Amino acid sequence: MRRDQGPGVTAGDTAFQRARRPEQKRQRQDAILGAARQLALRDGVRAVTLTGIADEVGIHKSALLRYFETREQIFLELTAGEWRGWTAALHAGLDAARPGAPGSAALVADVVARSFASRPLLCDLIPHTALNLERHVSPDAVRRYKLTSLGAIREVAGVIQRVRPDLSEGECLEFISAMASLAGATWQMANPPPVLADLYAADPQLAPACVDLLPRLRRTAEILLAGLIPSRNPPRAGPGRRRPAGSSPRSRRSPGA
Amino acid sequence: MRRDQGPGVTAGDTAFQRARRPEQKRQRQDAILGAARQLALRDGVRAVTLTGIADEVGIHKSALLRYFETREQIFLELTAGEWRGWTAALHAGLDAARPGAPGSAALVADVVARSFASRPLLCDLIPHTALNLERHVSPDAVRRYKLTSLGAIREVAGVIQRVRPDLSEGECLEFISAMASLAGATWQMANPPPVLADLYAADPQLAPACVDLLPRLRRTAEILLAGLIPSRNPPRAGPGRRRPAGSSPRSRRSPGA
User: Fold this and answer.
1) A50-64 residue pLDDT tens
2) What is the ipTM, given to two decimal places?
3) Residues A95 and A202 in one domain
4) Counted domains in chain A
5) Which of residues 185-224 of B touch A (CB under 8 A)?
6) pTM of the model
7) Closest-CA residue of chain B to A154
8) CA distances from A48 to A2, A32, A66, A75, A168 (A)
């Protein structure tokens, strides 16, 4: 589809010409990332090939590899960009909230759930990172990506802790890390191919396979937020928690967590 | 490695002979599944090819496809078997527990965390199911698989509810469904290739990328269990929860959840 737009055409016009000046190189990289993004949103990350991206940009596959190590590095760069946009969305959704105000847990749960549900590319990319992307790029590229993704998680944990000052920074990190993993896993379940979506919808026995992403993420966020304080170590008596300190011999604690 | 054991050799002896009797067919299918399991445990699911499995069994790839639709169907069958073993482990770990006894939440969290952490093949397979496996088999094979996986989740939810009678069946389903998704996602993060494990260990900035599977799963299970009751709708005041009923206009509820 980019072929009908500016960047695709531009890149096509200069096909097989090597971008030498830094701004030319940056422009070509942006065209490649834009094409990969469009194809991934249309067909799903798993289905996008290096050749498909090169065709979309209008350059030869070998030319594309002057700008990125591998197909996986292209998607790792896209994931890093998605994390940056996601961080901005959390600031936009929570920076104005009054710390500890009534409803702050519901607000955090809703903003976090929407921040993922409104980013299909990020959700699709999340499970691909550890499974594929990080395995097919240089350690240096993984390091750059990790500094971005871990930085985004840490910054968002801080945004949440400002709204929920009753939670520790570590608890906010536990919460948002679990939500990111769940968003990636749940998005895949919530977006089966049409033939399977029809299969699940048609068979009452398969109804639990039909997952609605936003309410599922919001609900899990509410459960996690509600459990962080009562699950503190040393454990406190409370609803859903009936453990006197050090009771079960099997209840070894997570270090730091 | 199976080549050094019974099944591999047996299959090798009968290479290119077609198994016609039901028990022969079953034996051949078991040899194929056993070889796929060994290779997946050694190299990771992502790295195992149909040719690799055929070589391990000692039959031709085309012969292998008489017994399974695709590479993905072989792994979907393995996943179904893993869910059955996992269900048995939950029964073994929790059927003797006294309902609602002190420490029951810690016990459930520990048994559930161990049930995944001790099953690397199941954890590796979980993210592959929606991402790859279910997309490359017939709808009928997906349906058979889903009935097994959904049945396992439902049965384990019942096992947990017996130990935690204060939770509803729906809450136990929410809990174990989230834990299964987290086990799949977290296992991938906890098992990076050696070059990345070294990278993460060497750089203090990347320390958060080092994940210890069992304590992480146990801790998240404890948080989820602690949050299920306080997050009930209508919401109740309580630790980590300061929302008077119907306060935030954004706090739409998950249908059924």
Assistant:
1) 999 999 999 999 999
2) 0.85
3) yes
4) 2
5) 185-186, 188-189, 192-193, 195-196, 199-200, 203, 205-206, 208-209, 212, 215-216, 218-220, 222-224
6) 0.85
7) B208
8) 15, 12, 19, 10, 41
